[in-house]
């Protein structure tokens, strides 16, 4: 349920481009023949790789991480793995190995609800997975979730998150769409940060620059920014120094 914002964005692109939300590995890695026969793993969009446990009583599972130039992050531990290799991971009844691809941005709901309408009211966490060049980007699609206003009146919002050279931008991904939603980004998690920053500044269009509180976990190279309360529909940027 926390991934509903990401799924909704994927279905927007399925509607507009025909690209399916769930894809075999070879769709994202067509030049790697090893992905052609891989039936036990799949991609959720271009950012997440899932490897469900398909054998009864299995205690380990073999995971293929494609792309020799790729970096893959375990979404639970934030541990980074280089691509172009296979891993053997311990599993149990509660385990489904999922990895986020370096260079991607995935939006998640924070908190809990009883139905999808509840989740539309929840704030977001933006999870950034850096690639080997230290950059990442991804989109978020929003509309009212129940009507055809997105089609008839262009009442939708498509935003792009882009991180490059320590600067995370939230900007329109298209010139179309007018949906002034109240959804906010409450936190940002960045995986693959090499060094602890000295400060983090947040600038919202039309407002003063403020300093943001952050936590840095050196063991897994993860930076977390909390209590941001940044509206998705507005332009803003975060500078990491």
TrEMBL record:
Residues 18-106 form the Glycosyl hydrolase family 31 C-terminal domain. Pfam families: Glyco_hydro_31_3rd (PF21365). InterPro entries: Glyco_hydro_31_C, Glyco_hydro_b. It comes from the Eukaryota. Gene3D superfamilies: Golgi alpha-mannosidase II. This is Glycosyl hydrolase family 31 C-terminal domain-containing protein. It comes from Ameca splendens.
């Amino acid at each position: 349920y926390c991934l509903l914002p990401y799924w909704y964005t994927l279905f927007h692109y399925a509607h507009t481009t025909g690209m399916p939300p769930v894809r075999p590995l070879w769709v994202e890695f067509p030049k790697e023949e090893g992905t052609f026969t891989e039936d036990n793993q799949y991609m959720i969009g271009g950012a997440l790789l899932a490897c469900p446990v398909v054998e009864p009583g299995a205690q380990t599972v073999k995971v293929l991480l494609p792309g020799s130039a790729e970096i893959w992050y375990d979404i639970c531990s934030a541990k980074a793995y280089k691509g172009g290799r296979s891993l053997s991971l311990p599993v149990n009844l509660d385990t489904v190995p999922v990895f986020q691809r370096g260079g991607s941005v995935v939006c998640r709901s924070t908190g809990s609800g009883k139905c999808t309408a509840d989740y539309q009211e929840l704030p977001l966490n933006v999870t950034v997975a850096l690639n080997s060049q230290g950059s990442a980007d991804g989109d978020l699609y929003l509309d009212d979730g129940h009507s055809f206003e997105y089609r008839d009146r262009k009442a939708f919002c498509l935003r792009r998150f882009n991180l490059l050279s320590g600067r995370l931008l939230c900007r329109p991904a298209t010139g179309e769409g007018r949906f002034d939603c109240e959804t906010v980004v409450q936190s940002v998690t960045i995986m693959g940060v090499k060094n602890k920053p000295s400060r983090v500044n947040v600038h919202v269009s039309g407002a003063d620059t403020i300093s943001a509180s952050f936590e840095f976990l050196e063991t897994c190279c993860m930076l977390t920014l909390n209590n941001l309360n940044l509206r998705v529909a507005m332009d803003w940027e975060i500078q990491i120094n």
